Amino acid sequence: MKLSRESWLAIGLVVVLAVITALAAAQQTQAAVLPPLSSASTAPDGARALWLWLDDLHYAVRDDVAPFFSIPRDARLVLMLEPFPGVTSAEWETIDDWVRDGGTLIVAGDRFGAALATQHYTFTLAYLDNPVPALAAQTPLLASPPLTGAADVRTLAHFETERSDFVAHLAAPSGPVVVSFALGKGRVILGAAPYAFSNAGLKEPGNPALVLNLILISPASGAVWFDEWHHGVRPVDSQVVGPEDWLRRTPAGRALLYVAGVIFLAVLLRGRRFGRPVPLPGEITRRAPLEYISAIANLGRRAGHRRAVLQQYHQRLKRRLGQRYRLDPTLRDPEYVARLAEYNPGLDAEALRRLLARLQRPNVNESEMIQLAAEVAAWIKE
């Protein structure tokens, strides 16, 4: 028996309803399981041991959350451990302003949420092929208490960044694992080794000393606040502000979203257009990239811009050769070549000096310009 279009539509809606119900049930089941590095979790990957340990050390420890994201006024250290994805720009603004006023932020994790959080500070998590079990301190700053041996951090990732204003406290052979940098009057500490903060990790040698050293980097006095807001914790009496909160947090709002989704799906399955059909663009003959390059070259030849072209090659050569060593390309040629030779003993300094001088000659014919361009390309390729 062949089913009608309406029958298929009804079957599809029933299937969608079943999928939504299953997802809701799975979400409720997951909500009962505390997330990794939660201050209330006693699981091996939880952080309850860290909470109790800091409390025994007479730190003022807090994990309370307000109806809206805010950092407690008496907090001097915020622990953002394995945060969930979805930290909003307004929340980042609150965090950064608090750090600039003298607070210390520790972000530790190697999951997707932590990767997004560290990306906010232009640090990218790069994952290792094999975990590195133990790492030694990279600087003498970890001395309270002294970190004499390697810490069993069992890291699965390291950081990659173009920044140079940071201190690496722990590093794997492939890159830094724990870094810190100043932000205003405060400091930000990023860690790609969350195992050291966990209930199981604090039992391993070197990890308690490492964690305590990171906490003591903060010079201010005040409470240590575990950021459970970004573990999904909300107060029971959280107020609903605005239509967005009403849609997401109230049963009526969720029902309205579901009805809107069902109507959209029904219209989509019935094949009804949302507007006028857009005709396909006609065949457009595009010019090859080589034609553009040839046209620009011919324009430069007619205008006699050899001097400008050579100056561009001159600056490009200095930028590319000095990029690795962060040399200023605006330095005078003799000083630039001398500094570059200090960093690269195998450099043919005399040949480079002659090439830079030839690139600044005022009168160069076309054949000489082509030869100089080829020499510059050879230097850059090396």
Structural summary, described in words:
- With 382 residues, this protein is of the alpha/beta class.
- The chain folds into 3 domains: 199 residues, Rossmann fold (3-Layer(aba) Sandwich), CATH 3.40.50; 30 residues, no CATH class; 93 residues, no CATH class.
- The chain is built from 12 helices and 9 strands.
- The chain has a 7-stranded mixed sheet with strand order 1-9-2-3-8-7-6. It has a two-stranded antiparallel sheet with strand order 4-5.
- α6 crosses α7 and α10 packs antiparallel against α11.
- The longest helix has 28 residues.
- The termini are far apart.
- The model has no long low-confidence stretch (mean pLDDT 84).
Concise description?
The protein is α/β, with parallel strands linked by helices. The protein has helices at 5-32, 48-56, 89-100, 112-119, 207-215, 242-249, 251-269, 289-303, 306-323, 333-343, 349-359, 366-381; strands at residues 61-62, 75-81, 104-108, 124-132, 155-160, 167-172, 175-183, 186-191, 223-226. Helices cover 43% and strands 14% of the residues.
Write the layout of secondary structure elements.
Elements: H1 5-32, H2 48-56, E1 61-62, E2 75-81, H3 89-100, E3 104-108, H4 112-119, E4 124-132, E5 155-160, E6 167-172, E7 175-183, E8 186-191, H5 207-215, E9 223-226, H6 242-249, H7 251-269, H8 289-303, H9 306-323, H10 333-343, H11 349-359, H12 366-381
Parallel strand pairs: 1-9, 2-3, 2-9, 3-8
Antiparallel strand pairs: 4-5, 6-7, 7-8
Please bin the fraction of helical residues. Answer: 40-55%
Could you name the CATH topology of the largest domain? Rossmann fold
Q: Overall mean pLDDT score?
A: 84
Which series of helices and strands comes N to C? HHEEHEHEEEEEHEHHHHHHH
CA-atom Rg in angstroms: 30 Å
> Which shape, going by the Cα principal axes?
flat
Major sheet characteristics:
7 strands, mixed
The CATH architecture of the largest domain would be: 3-Layer(aba) Sandwich
CATH class of the largest domain: Alpha Beta
**Beta fraction of the residues?**
5-15%
Number of helices: 12
